[in-house]
Amino acid sequence: RAREPSAASLARAWWPGAALALAGVAAVVWASPPALRVQFDETSLVGVSQNMHAQGHAVLTTGAIPFEGRPFPLENMVDKRPPLFAYLCSLVHAVTGYRVANAFVVNGALLAVGLFVTFAAARARLGLRAGLAAPLLLLAVPLNGVVATSAGFELLAVVLLLLATLAALDFVARPDAPRLAALAGSSALLVQSRYESLPAAAL
């Protein structure tokens, strides 16, 4: 039976990727300060997350009146956008209270995860140098930085597509029940990230 790696050996193996991911997030936030960029889409996602936090329902308020110093919703609708990004924002709301900026926190965390997963995948296949180069190539694309400092759900879809693709490759290489569960779970999350994700998951 193969010997399990120790926590110290895992830390030595993966700390360069974690450090690069955190440095990459800091650089992106410095170069492209967080802001709402696609007004209707992003405000709708944040609005759904607000209602998830305040009402416990994945709905978008379309009509409200002031009541006792706060808006009282009169009309709600089910938003056409998948609810996963709004749900992640609502989890942050539960810790800090409702803030629009929590959407930026979610995307910052997703960027860190995406960069680290890219490092890990490239290193496992091509070595340390390739692992360090792969996240830098992603950061070299200006659109990635803009998306990562917005309140949209595009980065969530990209990160989940990456995870689902890696899970699929791992399952094909060594099919077993845990790898099948990882593929099914990542695909299910991918479907809930963006409208176009269902055909992508099917492929």
How would you characterize the overall build of this protein?
This protein has 9 helices and 2 strands; from the N terminus they run ααββααααααα. It is 68% helix and 8% strand. The longest helix has 25 residues, at 7-31. Helix 4 packs antiparallel against helix 5. The model has no long low-confidence stretch (mean pLDDT 89). A hairpin with a 2-residue loop joins strand 1 (60-67) and strand 2. It is mainly alpha-helical and 203 residues long.
Mean pLDDT: 89
Count of distinct strands = 2
How are the strands of the largest sheet arranged?
A: 1-2
Uncertain regions spanning at least 5 consecutive residues = none
Helical/strand content category:
mainly alpha
* Rg value: 19 Å
How helix-rich are the residues, as a percent range? 55-70%
The separation of the N and C termini measures 36 Å
What composes the largest sheet? 2 strands, antiparallel
Report strand %: 5-15%
N-to-C SSE series? HHEEHHHHHHH
Which of globular, elongated, flat, extended, rod-shaped describes the shape?
globular
